[in-house]
Amino acid sequence: MSESSHSFQDEVLAELGEDRLAEIAALAGTDTAGARALVDGSVAELSGELRQAAAEPGSADEVKAAVDEVTSEEPPLQGVASFGGLAAGGLMAGVLTKLARPAANAVAKRTGLPPATMNRAVDLLVPVVLAVLTRRATARKGGGGLGDLLGGGKK
Are 91 and 84 in contact (CB under 8 A)? Predict the structure, then answer.
């Protein structure tokens, strides 16, 4: 098991906080327990999409560069100078943003929720997932790869 007894999904839920969890619950028309399950499934799907992208020849280099950036000792480029998209998010923000739609669509299909609702929910999760990845990378002092950042095997 990883250094932490908390799963990646648990850390995202903790980082998300009650206010944003309530926002997702309202968006999905459910209670906080339903929102927690939705977040857990969405984070698992997004993590799976990230692992899959890392394994595919067409996107592996981009994912590796994003992981290297997150795990490096150097802070990422900021603002418009970054290649990744979200301001100050760097490459990993761009990778997560690209993977958000396929993850949201998969969760929408599985849950029966409208794709637009799931797109919005996953959009709310992307900066939180990025924050947790960055915190995990910082805690590891630049070591490890994607598997270390996301935790053990697929959930």
Answer: yes
Structure tokens at 70: 């997150």
pLDDT for res 56: 92
Amino acid identity for residue 154 in this structure: K
> What would the DSSP string read from start to end of 81-104?
G-SSSSTTTHHHHHHHHHHHHHHH
Phi-psi region at 153: left, alpha or beta (left = phi > 0; alpha = psi -120 to 50): beta
* DSSP of 38-79: HHHHHHHHHHHHHHHHHHSHHHHHHHHHHHHHHHSSSPPP-G
Max CA separation in the chain (angstroms): 42
* Cβ count near 54 (within 10 Å): 20
pTM of the entire predicted model: 0.80
Mean pLDDT (the chain) is 81
125-140 residue pLDDT tens: 999 999 888 888 777 7
DSSP letter for 80, please.
Answer: G
